[in-house]
Amino acid sequence: MCKSDALHDEIGNNHIGTSDYTPLKASAFDISDDEKIELIKKDVENILNTLGMDLTDDSLKGTPNRVAKMFVKEIFGGLNPAKKPSSSTFDNKYKYGEMLVEKNIVVYSTCEHHLLPIVGRAHVAYISNGKVVGLSKMNRIVDYYAKRPQVQERLTIQIVEELKRVLNTEDVACVIDAKHLCVNSRGIRDIESSTVTAEYSGAFKNENTRKEFLNYIQLETKF
Fold first, then answer.
1. Catalytic: which of 15, 111, 158, 162?
2. What is the DSSP letter of 73?
3. Which residues lie closer than 8 Å to 13 by C-beta, 6 or more apart?
4. Of 114, 123, 150, 174, which is the active-site residue?
5. 115-173 tens-digit pLDDT
6. Does the annotation count 158 as an active-site position?
Protein backbone atom coordinates (compact mmCIF):
# COMPACT_ATOMS: atom_id res chain seq x y z
CA MET A 1 0.00 0.00 0.00
CA CYS A 2 1.45 3.36 -1.01
CA LYS A 3 1.76 6.27 1.42
CA SER A 4 -1.18 8.20 -0.06
CA ASP A 5 -3.45 5.12 0.12
CA ALA A 6 -2.54 4.69 3.79
CA LEU A 7 -3.40 8.35 4.45
CA HIS A 8 -6.74 8.03 2.69
CA ASP A 9 -7.51 4.88 4.66
CA GLU A 10 -6.65 6.69 7.89
CA ILE A 11 -8.97 9.58 6.98
CA GLY A 12 -11.82 7.20 6.11
CA ASN A 13 -11.39 4.82 9.03
CA ASN A 14 -11.34 7.73 11.45
CA HIS A 15 -14.34 9.35 9.73
CA ILE A 16 -12.54 12.64 9.11
CA GLY A 17 -14.27 15.21 6.93
CA THR A 18 -12.08 17.25 4.59
CA SER A 19 -14.53 19.92 3.41
CA ASP A 20 -17.69 21.73 4.55
CA TYR A 21 -19.17 21.39 1.07
CA THR A 22 -20.21 18.30 -0.87
CA PRO A 23 -17.27 17.45 -3.18
CA LEU A 24 -19.02 17.25 -6.55
CA LYS A 25 -17.30 17.30 -9.93
CA ALA A 26 -18.21 20.11 -12.34
CA SER A 27 -19.44 17.42 -14.75
CA ALA A 28 -21.73 15.79 -12.16
CA PHE A 29 -24.89 16.45 -14.19
CA ASP A 30 -23.58 16.18 -17.74
CA ILE A 31 -25.44 12.89 -18.11
CA SER A 32 -29.04 12.06 -17.26
CA ASP A 33 -30.30 10.03 -14.32
CA ASP A 34 -31.21 7.18 -16.68
CA GLU A 35 -27.67 7.13 -18.08
CA LYS A 36 -26.24 7.10 -14.55
CA ILE A 37 -28.47 4.17 -13.64
CA GLU A 38 -27.23 2.14 -16.61
CA LEU A 39 -23.58 2.85 -15.78
CA ILE A 40 -23.98 2.07 -12.07
CA LYS A 41 -25.91 -1.10 -12.92
CA LYS A 42 -22.87 -2.40 -14.84
CA ASP A 43 -20.58 -1.46 -11.94
CA VAL A 44 -22.75 -3.33 -9.43
CA GLU A 45 -22.84 -6.36 -11.73
CA ASN A 46 -19.04 -6.29 -11.81
CA ILE A 47 -18.79 -6.07 -8.01
CA LEU A 48 -21.14 -9.01 -7.50
CA ASN A 49 -19.43 -11.06 -10.19
CA THR A 50 -16.04 -10.34 -8.63
CA LEU A 51 -17.37 -11.49 -5.26
CA GLY A 52 -18.40 -14.75 -6.93
CA MET A 53 -22.17 -14.26 -6.82
CA ASP A 54 -24.31 -16.09 -9.40
CA LEU A 55 -26.29 -13.35 -11.15
CA THR A 56 -28.43 -15.94 -12.97
CA ASP A 57 -30.13 -16.71 -9.64
CA ASP A 58 -33.65 -15.28 -9.57
CA SER A 59 -32.96 -13.51 -6.26
CA LEU A 60 -29.93 -11.67 -7.68
CA LYS A 61 -30.96 -10.98 -11.28
CA GLY A 62 -32.56 -7.65 -10.48
CA THR A 63 -30.12 -6.54 -7.79
CA PRO A 64 -27.79 -4.42 -10.00
CA ASN A 65 -30.72 -2.48 -11.43
CA ARG A 66 -32.37 -2.06 -8.02
CA VAL A 67 -29.15 -0.78 -6.46
CA ALA A 68 -28.50 1.62 -9.34
CA LYS A 69 -32.00 3.09 -9.14
CA MET A 70 -31.74 3.35 -5.36
CA PHE A 71 -28.44 5.23 -5.60
CA VAL A 72 -29.64 7.75 -8.18
CA LYS A 73 -33.32 8.17 -7.29
CA GLU A 74 -33.30 7.67 -3.54
CA ILE A 75 -30.36 7.60 -1.16
CA PHE A 76 -28.18 9.96 -3.24
CA GLY A 77 -31.03 12.01 -4.70
CA GLY A 78 -29.94 15.01 -2.64
CA LEU A 79 -26.90 15.48 -4.89
CA ASN A 80 -29.14 16.87 -7.61
CA PRO A 81 -29.87 20.60 -7.07
CA ALA A 82 -33.04 20.20 -9.13
CA LYS A 83 -34.45 18.22 -6.19
CA LYS A 84 -33.71 20.92 -3.63
CA PRO A 85 -36.97 21.68 -1.76
CA SER A 86 -38.53 25.07 -2.35
CA SER A 87 -38.75 26.86 0.98
CA SER A 88 -41.38 29.56 0.85
CA THR A 89 -41.34 31.90 3.82
CA PHE A 90 -44.15 33.91 5.34
CA ASP A 91 -44.33 37.11 7.30
CA ASN A 92 -44.30 36.55 11.05
CA LYS A 93 -47.63 38.36 11.44
CA TYR A 94 -48.33 36.96 14.89
CA LYS A 95 -45.04 38.46 16.11
CA TYR A 96 -43.77 35.24 17.65
CA GLY A 97 -40.33 36.23 18.89
CA GLU A 98 -39.19 33.17 20.82
CA MET A 99 -37.27 30.12 19.74
CA LEU A 100 -38.98 27.66 17.40
CA VAL A 101 -37.71 24.10 17.68
CA GLU A 102 -38.41 21.17 15.37
CA LYS A 103 -37.00 18.12 17.11
CA ASN A 104 -36.63 14.42 16.34
CA ILE A 105 -36.44 14.86 12.56
CA VAL A 106 -35.46 11.46 11.19
CA VAL A 107 -32.07 11.39 9.46
CA TYR A 108 -31.22 8.71 6.90
CA SER A 109 -27.89 9.41 5.30
CA THR A 110 -24.84 7.54 3.98
CA CYS A 111 -21.27 7.74 5.23
CA GLU A 112 -19.05 8.84 2.34
CA HIS A 113 -16.12 6.80 3.66
CA HIS A 114 -17.69 3.32 3.53
CA LEU A 115 -21.08 3.95 1.88
CA LEU A 116 -22.88 2.55 4.92
CA PRO A 117 -25.96 4.11 6.54
CA ILE A 118 -26.06 6.93 9.06
CA VAL A 119 -29.34 6.81 10.99
CA GLY A 120 -30.46 9.23 13.68
CA ARG A 121 -32.35 12.37 14.62
CA ALA A 122 -31.86 16.05 13.87
CA HIS A 123 -33.06 18.85 16.12
CA VAL A 124 -33.35 22.25 14.44
CA ALA A 125 -34.20 25.66 15.86
CA TYR A 126 -34.39 29.28 14.77
CA ILE A 127 -35.47 32.65 16.07
CA SER A 128 -37.53 34.62 13.56
CA ASN A 129 -36.14 37.79 12.06
CA GLY A 130 -39.53 38.69 10.61
CA LYS A 131 -39.96 35.56 8.49
CA VAL A 132 -41.14 32.02 9.29
CA VAL A 133 -40.95 28.82 7.28
CA GLY A 134 -43.42 25.93 7.16
CA LEU A 135 -42.56 23.19 9.64
CA SER A 136 -42.45 20.44 7.02
CA LYS A 137 -39.90 22.47 5.04
CA MET A 138 -37.43 22.06 7.89
CA ASN A 139 -37.82 18.28 7.62
CA ARG A 140 -37.39 18.47 3.85
CA ILE A 141 -34.20 20.51 4.15
CA VAL A 142 -32.73 17.91 6.52
CA ASP A 143 -33.78 15.10 4.18
CA TYR A 144 -32.35 16.81 1.09
CA TYR A 145 -28.89 17.32 2.53
CA ALA A 146 -28.93 13.86 4.13
CA LYS A 147 -29.55 12.14 0.78
CA ARG A 148 -25.96 12.20 -0.39
CA PRO A 149 -22.64 10.70 0.66
CA GLN A 150 -22.05 12.63 3.87
CA VAL A 151 -19.96 13.44 6.88
CA GLN A 152 -22.15 14.24 9.88
CA GLU A 153 -20.33 17.47 10.69
CA ARG A 154 -20.88 18.72 7.13
CA LEU A 155 -24.54 17.72 7.18
CA THR A 156 -25.07 19.71 10.38
CA ILE A 157 -23.42 22.80 8.89
CA GLN A 158 -25.32 22.54 5.60
CA ILE A 159 -28.68 22.41 7.36
CA VAL A 160 -27.87 25.53 9.38
CA GLU A 161 -26.50 27.44 6.38
CA GLU A 162 -29.59 26.65 4.29
CA LEU A 163 -31.99 27.77 7.01
CA LYS A 164 -29.98 30.96 7.51
CA ARG A 165 -30.33 31.66 3.80
CA VAL A 166 -34.04 30.83 3.64
CA LEU A 167 -35.01 32.78 6.77
CA ASN A 168 -32.53 35.64 6.35
CA THR A 169 -31.39 35.28 9.94
CA GLU A 170 -28.21 34.25 11.71
CA ASP A 171 -30.17 32.78 14.63
CA VAL A 172 -30.23 29.08 13.66
CA ALA A 173 -29.06 25.91 15.40
CA CYS A 174 -28.89 22.22 14.61
CA VAL A 175 -27.91 19.17 16.66
CA ILE A 176 -27.73 15.69 15.13
CA ASP A 177 -27.46 12.47 17.14
CA ALA A 178 -26.86 9.49 14.85
CA LYS A 179 -25.51 5.97 14.62
CA HIS A 180 -22.95 5.19 11.92
CA LEU A 181 -23.12 1.63 10.64
CA CYS A 182 -19.48 1.90 9.58
CA VAL A 183 -18.78 1.99 13.34
CA ASN A 184 -21.64 -0.25 14.45
CA SER A 185 -21.34 -3.08 11.90
CA ARG A 186 -17.63 -3.13 10.96
CA GLY A 187 -14.30 -2.02 12.39
CA ILE A 188 -14.79 -1.64 16.15
CA ARG A 189 -18.39 -2.96 15.80
CA ASP A 190 -19.71 -0.90 18.68
CA ILE A 191 -23.49 -1.11 18.36
CA GLU A 192 -24.21 1.19 21.31
CA SER A 193 -22.29 4.36 20.43
CA SER A 194 -23.71 7.29 18.53
CA THR A 195 -22.22 10.54 17.25
CA VAL A 196 -23.50 13.98 18.27
CA THR A 197 -22.69 17.09 16.24
CA ALA A 198 -23.86 20.66 16.68
CA GLU A 199 -23.76 23.92 14.76
CA TYR A 200 -24.79 27.18 16.41
CA SER A 201 -25.11 30.55 14.73
CA GLY A 202 -26.13 34.03 15.83
CA ALA A 203 -28.02 34.12 19.13
CA PHE A 204 -27.36 30.41 19.68
CA LYS A 205 -23.70 31.18 20.37
CA ASN A 206 -24.96 32.65 23.64
CA GLU A 207 -24.67 30.08 26.42
CA ASN A 208 -28.15 30.70 27.85
CA THR A 209 -29.79 30.40 24.43
CA ARG A 210 -27.94 27.15 23.78
CA LYS A 211 -29.03 25.78 27.15
CA GLU A 212 -32.65 26.65 26.39
CA PHE A 213 -32.40 24.82 23.06
CA LEU A 214 -30.77 21.75 24.61
CA ASN A 215 -33.41 21.74 27.32
CA TYR A 216 -36.13 21.66 24.65
CA ILE A 217 -34.57 18.65 22.96
CA GLN A 218 -33.63 17.06 26.32
CA LEU A 219 -30.03 16.53 25.32
CA GLU A 220 -27.57 16.99 28.14
CA THR A 221 -24.40 16.94 26.03
CA LYS A 222 -22.41 20.17 26.39
CA PHE A 223 -20.91 21.94 23.38
1. 111
2. I
3. 113, 187
4. 114
5. 999 999 999 999 999 988 988 999 999 999 999 999 999 999 999 999 999 999 999 99
6. no
